Amino acid sequence: MHFAMPPRKTSRPPPYAARNQSSVRIPPALKNLLRRDKLRLVVVGALGFFTLLWLFGWIGGGSSSNSVLPGGVASTISLIGTGPAVVIVTVIDPQANPAWTERIKKNREEYAKKHGYLTFFANASDYPLRNSPPSWAKVPAVRHAMTRNPGSTFFWYLDSTALIMNPSIDIHAHVLAPSRLEKLMIINQPVVPPDSVIKTFSNLKPDRIDVIVTQDKDGLSQSSWIVRNGDWARYFLDAWFDPIYRSYNFQKAEQHALEHIVQWHGTILAKLAMVSQDTINGYHASDLANANHGTYKDGDLVANFYGCDREKRSCADEQQPFFAILEEAKNKD
Amino acid sequence: MASRSPSPRPGGWSSPGLNSPYDASGRASPMRGYANGASQNVTWASAQARSAEVKGYTAFSPRNQGFFGRHFRKISTQLPFSYAEKEKLGRGRYQGNKVMQTFKRIGRNFWRLRRSLGLVLLLILSVILFYVTPLHRVYRRSSLGGGGKKYVIILAANQGGGVMEWKGPREWAIERYSVKNKKNYANKWGYDLEIVDMSTKKRYAHEWRESWEKVDTIKNAMRKYPHAEWFWWLDTNTFIMEPSYSLQNHLFKRLQDVSYRDIREYNPLNISHPLTDEYLDAEILSPVGDGKTNSINMLVPQDCGGFNLGSFFVRRSVWTDRLLDIWWDPVAYEQKHMEWEHKEQDALEYMYQNQPWIRSHVAFVQQRKVNAFPPGACGDKGDDPNIHYHEKERDFMVNMAGCEWGRDCWAEMYKYRQLSERLNRNPWERFKDLISDSIKHRKESKKKEEKGKKDKHS
């Protein structure tokens, strides 16, 4: 069949394909701007605008300048580690027998010399204690030692009642090195025996420890402790020495003050490691020693004649046989 | 029909255009229809078109339906500058008067400069958009921009309320004003605002720490905003008079100039400074610590009676952690709580004097910078240049300290709010006020004149 004309167009034309209609109709002028070649211009313009704003900085911002006030004294914290590693601090009672104090000093000095450490001796009367017991003097004394030896890392306070009995033990390698301290630390131990609810933290990292103490039968012992130089030590010693604790008449002066701040202030407890008493503070022939690990045995670093400076006891007499042992050992070498 | 089935034909719906057409019943092979969808041949498109007719609107919408779409051509041909007009130029027809010609010339120049003009317009538009939308807040918050997220405002609400005292409508209104003021300020600069309920709670069994909760509150805020650096404590009875001052520009960018570390500069407590104890280190013995701004961890204003903790700043640092830890101590509390009626404030003054480690990290800020007093606090006249608010010098903040003892907190709050609004009017409001004021003034003077005349007549 042939047709002269193509088939007639339908009277119902198919609708146009629907335009893709977005909800927002972009006017053609803007659409033109969003074309690829123009888009670059827009982006660069916007970037330039923000750079300008940033450069001017007048909508707030910027860091503070760091000029130094005249009279400002730089902190000595940065010097830590440049000097001898350990300083042994002992407070001497000026009224004590001078011959004995000389022997005590010599005991520390010989040990320090052997390992390349320093000693610091202070008189209890050097510090403004304001009518509080002289046993408080150890706190400013350690602070004083830090001021004098800003380059040293550890400050070992050792009471004058204690003797270093085994000079061959290097306290740094023996106690302070992190790997060693990790083994020595007693974690999860009630701070005040037998059952204080505050216990030493169980997740302590040995390199973050700032103070090392021991515990005798009554509680934290203050005869021998080690503190690491730094901001924390300043905070710790200043807080401990706060007159408000000195005037409070704790039963045993600075000892209870220490137990108090350790138990009430987490920033102190978190930096505290407890080691067994015989590590640095073994008591000789005393019923106040820690029942498990408190008594001095031959070969321990320190023998402490705890309480020999009180009442009618005489440290010189009690320590005499031990001085003799030390002399003997020295002569052998 | 036996059953009212929804489908038009037995056999169910068929997909039009895909299978055989409807009329194919009885045929073995589908009938060949015409192209373009003749009547029997139902394609998808035609079905859609038909249903569109039924629905009453078309599936496609024609272009140019809007006003401009329809009339743009008409309008554009009427505009003085058009290409069509160009052709007619100089053909002896009427060119319009001179004014029209100048307009035309200006228009033509504008058209020629359309690119650069468009750029300028775009710039202006983006500036407006920047400030109208929350974009400026985002910018000011970001560390690249303003760094506003480094600042947190801690607003103590409901102080002393709770079990001790019920709040009346005035107290509620004061609190509402105060909170709104800080909210706006924090929003404007992209700071965080932490509103804390300080109502007295018996939270601690021994009741010791009752209302000593500043420390806990600051600690909580530090935990809640781990990226913030400075925390600004504010009491309820405070009002930010100049919201246009950012903390950065007002204080922290020029900390060295606005703060002083040597308390001897202004020392109402007569604290002996610097310390002289031989056993302390040089940094602590120095009156200004290490003298660097980055060692300042606490910024405190002093009023006539010593430290004022109605508005103060602490920076997140280990030093601050230690301070917050040692601030409240049971031994100190037991001995001093009767004496320390301002609680944390007295405790801080005490510690500043007695614990040397604190001294070298505290700086003081001139009181009117962050904590100006209204008359009535520290002197009834309100004329101490160190302490009292000065309208002319546009002090940043007012602290209506002690208004709850014998002064009217609400009246003061209202007064300072009005004053702040008046001081911070925008030019348009200023203009309106100027006109209304002048009209008022004229009316009043007229009245006076009339009165004067009447007085003369009578």
From TrEMBL, chain A:
GO biological-process terms attached to the record: protein N-linked glycosylation
TM segment ranges: 41-60, 72-92
Taxonomy, superkingdom: Eukaryota
Coiled-coil features, chain-numbered ranges: none
Keyword annotations from UniProtKB, A to Z: Glycosyltransferase, Membrane, Transferase, Transmembrane, Transmembrane helix
Gene Ontology molecular-function annotations: alpha-1,6-mannosyltransferase activity
UniProt region (Disordered), positions on chain: 1-21
InterPro entries per the UniProt record, alphabetical: Glyco_trans_34, Nucleotide-diphossugar_trans
Gene Ontology cellular-component terms listed: mannan polymerase complex
Family: Belongs to the glycosyltransferase 34 family.
Protein name: Alpha-1,6-mannosyltransferas-like protein subunit
Source organism of this protein record: Massariosphaeria phaeospora
UniProtKB/TrEMBL annotation, chain B:
Spans through the membrane: 113-132
Record's keyword terms, sorted: Glycosyltransferase, Membrane, Transferase, Transmembrane, Transmembrane helix
Taxonomy, superkingdom: Eukaryota
GO BP of this protein: protein N-linked glycosylation
Listed Gene3D superfamilies: Spore Coat Polysaccharide Biosynthesis Protein SpsA, Chain A
Pfam family, one: Glyco_transf_34
Composition skew (Basic and acidic residues), residue ranges: 446-458
Compositionally biased tracts (Low complexity): 1-17
Gene Ontology terms: cellular component: Golgi membrane
UniProt-annotated stretches for the region Disordered: 1-31, 439-458
Molecular function in Gene Ontology: glycosyltransferase activity
Family: Belongs to the glycosyltransferase 34 family.
Protein known as: Galactosyl transferase GMA12/MNN10 family-domain-containing protein
Source species of the chain: Massariosphaeria phaeospora
